[in-house]
Amino acid sequence: MKKLSLTIFAVALLTVSCKDKQVETPVVVEDTKVEAPAEQTETKELRLSAENMDAYAESEDKMMVSLGDDDQWRLQKAIQIIGNNNIIYDAEDGIDNYKTDAAFLKQVGGKTFKEVCEVAVGYLKADQQRELDRIKDLLGTIKDPKAASEVDV
Q1: 62-88, pLDDT tens digit by residue?
Q2: Burial of 22 (0-12, 13-18, 19+ CB in 10 A)
Q3: Which residues is 22 bridged to in the sheet?
Q4: pTM value?
Q5: What burial class does residue 107 get, using C-beta atoms within 10 Å of its C-beta: 0-12 exposed, 13-18 middle, 19+ buried?
Q6: Rounded Cα distance, 1 and 38, in Å
Q7: Element (H, E) at 7
Q8: Nearest to 7 by CA among 25, 32, 31, 33
């Protein structure tokens, strides 16, 4: 029974998602065999470093180790989205790596896993809204065929 409780607790810890950082710990009562979940919040959340790219890379590695497989994937995708939206170009050389790194560190530095995910979602929502606005503008320029034929008559 003790092994079952430890296994359930370990699985609950591994399934912590980006949206919810509370872990349910089952409480087993030997007499009646009733299980009631008890909520336990995580006290220490890792933050990404904003000092320089080397310190950032170390803090990202530590954060990755502390996350489950699904959350590691979410963090990688969030970092990709944020990085792709903060590329700064130089007129002569193309991408300015120093300014791009500084902009990236400004966006993710000092943030927790959940906060990084929220920043990435913000970028995705802004992109989606721009695309919807573009489609609405495009649809607004299309004339109704019936209205166009009435004008020509």
Answers
A1: 999 998 889 999 999 999 998 888 887
A2: exposed
A3: 41
A4: 0.58
A5: buried
A6: 18
A7: helix 2-14
A8: 25
